Amino acid sequence: MTPIREARRDDVPTILQLIHDLAVYEKEPDAVRNTVEGLEEALFGPNPRIFAHIAEDDGGVQGFALWFLNYSTWEGVHGIYLEDLYVRPEARGSGYGKALLRNLAGIAAERGYARVEWSVLNWNEPSIRFYQSLGAHPQDEWTTFRLTGAPLAAFAGTGA
Questions:
Q1: What residues form DSSP beta bridges with 68?
Q2: pLDDT at 160 over 60
Q3: Prediction pTM value
């Protein structure tokens, strides 16, 4: 069994590095604006809104899952939204990703949450196949929308 544990404050620099590595993998190497201080506040501040779990072995941290709660108005209960799941390339295929997802599924089941969900880039076939092998299925009937940057500021009336 792959050891999974809750992230600790001293994991924050490693998690941020893995976030940068994920951005490179997702072809957005310059997109990460997060900082150690910001991530530490979000994970361990007085009112944490995100959570993280770590997969590690004797060689150190091999991957992480970063998530937060969402809410189903239809089900009337929370769910888990997996923001990031990342396993170092050299550790892929060793069960770390599966163990991280199983850990989240366990949290959801234990707490009575309705679901665990996430997004994956359409071109990321290895991940899509992996998720499908676990029994996950795409929500093809939904389209994700995002309001960000200048359009967000303009719509909010704050200017750009």
A1: 81
A2: no
A3: 0.92
